[in-house]
Specification:
There is one protein chain. By secondary structure, this protein is of the alpha/beta class. The chain has one domain. The protein has 2 helices and 8 strands, in the order E-E-E-E-E-H-E-E-E-H. The strands form 2 sheets. It has a 5-stranded mixed beta sheet. It has a 3-stranded mixed beta sheet with strand order 1-2-6.
Length: 119
């Protein structure tokens, strides 16, 4: 969930993430995913074993280089405030197509960085 701060920035939710996706065409796309609870009774995020993430926005044209995508990620970070542990900047995650929904192990419950559960 994004909460507008009134100064052109937004605070992201506890389970929201920013990462770089690498498509088969060798282009790199910065993506913001928002945590969306599973259907049914909603539990505190710390009690969930898995987190469901839905794509909220991504850089559609992408960049031909990882470095270009990293610059775009840095620009996005000036507007979206979230913990460093919820960002993967140092590498791209290879995907076959633009991802709309991910289900990942809950790195928050495991006291890890997002990057550790994406290995």
């Amino acid at each position: 969930m994004l909460i507008e701060n009134g100064n052109g920035t937004y605070t992201a939710g506890q389970g929201d993430i920013i990462c770089i996706l690498q498509l088969p065409a060798k282009t790199y796309h910065v993506a913001f995913f928002e945590e969306h609870p599973f259907a049914g009774q909603i539990k505190p995020i710390q009690d969930e074993d898995l987190l469901r993430l839905k794509s909220k926005m991504h850089h559609t044209t992408g960049s031909p280089t990882l470095e270009g995508a990293q610059k775009h990620l840095d620009d996005m970070r000036t507007k979206i405030i979230l913990p460093d542990s919820n960002i993967v900047r140092d590498r791209a995650i290879k995907v076959e197509d633009p991802v709309s929904v991910w289900v990942l192990p809950n790195w928050i419950k495991q006291h890890k960085n997002l990057s550790e559960v994406l290995n």
